[in-house]
Amino acid sequence: MPTFVLLTRLSAEAVRVPGMLEGLEQEAMRRIRAECPGVEWLNNYAVFGPYDYLDIFQAPDVETAAKVATLIRIHGRAQTEIWAAVEWDRFKTLVRELGEERPHVLVES
User: Fold this and answer.
1) Res. 49: pLDDT tops 90
2) Fold classification of 3-97 (topology level)
């Protein structure tokens, strides 16, 4: 199943009262479980930079991942980004499968 990285930046309204964070998370996760049953959460991190959270999850397809991001936007009052991710060992295998073809050099006349 494809892996996705979800970056979330909460709105100022969502973080005004610290106790709201857990309630927002619970509501968003309730909706995701109901509407995206094939999603499997792998890791969740609070980060301190331009984003507030980094989540890693698996979903059956990009459309399901987009639903997850949309539900987080709606219930978390947040901005989100989703990136598709390939595990490093799998990526190295993909690169090896490309072969050793040398790049073509264009010669201008």
Assistant:
1) yes
2) Alpha-Beta Plaits (3.30.70)
